[in-house]
Amino acid sequence: MTKFTGCIDIHQGKVKQIIGSTLADDDKTSEKNPNTNFVSSHPSTYFADLYFENKVQSTHIILLDGRVNEETIKAGTQVLQRHPGFFQVGGGISSNNCKEWLDRGASKVIVTSSVFNSDGEFLWDELNRLFTNCGGRGKLVLDLSCKKHNNEWIVCMNKWTKLTNLKLTNDIFQQLSEYCDEFLIHAADVEGLCKGIEYELVKKLGEWVQTLKSDVKIVYAGGAKSVDDLQTVKDLSNGRVDLTFGSSLDIFGGSLVKFDDCIKWNNKQ
Known about the structure:
The chain is α/β, with parallel strands linked by helices. It is 29% helix and 23% strand. It has helices at residues 44-53, 70-82, 98-103, 124-134, 170-176, 199-209, 228-237, 259-268, and strands at residues 4-5, 7-11, 14-18, 36-39, 60-63, 88-90, 108-111, 140-143, 146-149, 152-157, 162-167, 182-186, 217-221, 241-244. It has an eleven-stranded mixed sheet. It has a three-stranded antiparallel sheet with strand order 9-10-11, with no helix packed on it. Helix 7 (228-237) links the parallel strand 13 and strand 14 (241-244). The longest helix has 13 residues, at 70-82. The chain is globular.
């Protein structure tokens, strides 16, 4: 059944909510500031405890500048070590370091850009290495965050700044689900805007996931602004797509969605 899933976005060592389309793909200048909706005064472990105590499964830690910022790496590591085996982690993950993050306590690693080359071409060899080094599909989440382009949903890389050659189709989900049992999909154009979910994308995800193995999960993120969006996503996907709230959530400074209401929804499912 459709559940509320959590996210902890970390940038420059702090928990933040950022408008996704304003992130810069520049590993050498992590001090550049994207448009930010919220910066928490609480450490990352505060949110780790909140999600863990309320059993919010598939909560993902995204290290927005984790390839270059030691404070972000430290904050992410503290979350994982706080509750080993509970949180997923993404941001700068590749076949070279995936095992390291699993050893730090991640339940799964989330990958995007490492499975593409600099021209945006999908790297099946890298996916195979990830599959092997992680220990199988149960340890790997593929982030297929996307933008709509020419009436198709095209996967983005490098903090959603570059379109790849991979478009979301039923066939690609069939192929990729042999390597992972979970997909994380941000609608990049609406991420952080609190202006509503991409209904068309959620509907397509709902259609595609019905054809996949029963253990495959899809988590959608982007634009959610009401607890009623959980029911909408449930209806559109027959309960097979989960939903993440970010900037609209009261624990991240939002005024549209209460964390407690999301927990009540989960407890009813």
